[in-house]
Amino acid sequence: MYPFRKDLFATESRWYVACWDEDVTDQPIERWILNRPLVVYRDSTGRVVALDGRCPHRGFPLAKSRLCGSTIECGYHGMRFDASGACVHITSQEHIPSKMRVASYPVHELWNWVWIWMGDPQLADVRDVPDHIALGLTDTANWESDVKVYSHVAARYQLLHDNLLDLSQVGFLHGSTIGTADLAPIARSSTKTSRRSRRSSACSRQASSRSMSPCAATPMRSRRGICSSR
Length: 230
What we know:
By secondary structure, this protein is mainly beta. It is 9% helix and 31% strand. A four-stranded antiparallel β-sheet has the order 2-3-4-9, with no helix packed on it. Strand 10 and strand 11 form a beta hairpin. Residues 195-230 have low confidence and may be disordered.
């Protein structure tokens, strides 16, 4: 899957963070994910809804429209769409063509985020949303988060993964804040099995407050954000 083909920059069959949960109200907002415009809002029951962001009639941005109960009314000609994406009202006619609809996307609220599934809706499984407690990313007992930011990056999100997994650069690029140069060396280790010998790189030690800069050794509040690109 990685690196991707030239005509494919990201996979659809994954859960993506669309926005902070507190950003979603009864006022529609627009988000671009995988180069698609989306409209996200809460209906009259408080449920999060995510639809294709353009009206199929004239392409009007639905994020610039308004809610009418549990439907969203296009701000151009007043067509209304329900949470499934089906058009349920056309002002100038009684008959509503079955093709008059917009795509609807599965969403799930977890970890203060609204997650959205961009692939085949039949394949969406909320159990595939990353478990932040299991990964050690969420520790409500010891950390408090009070800052929420967006970082718009004009690049593939995979490059951010490469950067965050490359810990050898911490002591140099962030030497004045969270790292020192002695964190960079990595020892070689071998694990032998009955079938074959495996070689792997492993850190020879765990970072401690003595091998880190004073700034990194000081308890800090966590800082969370969303990285997105268009």
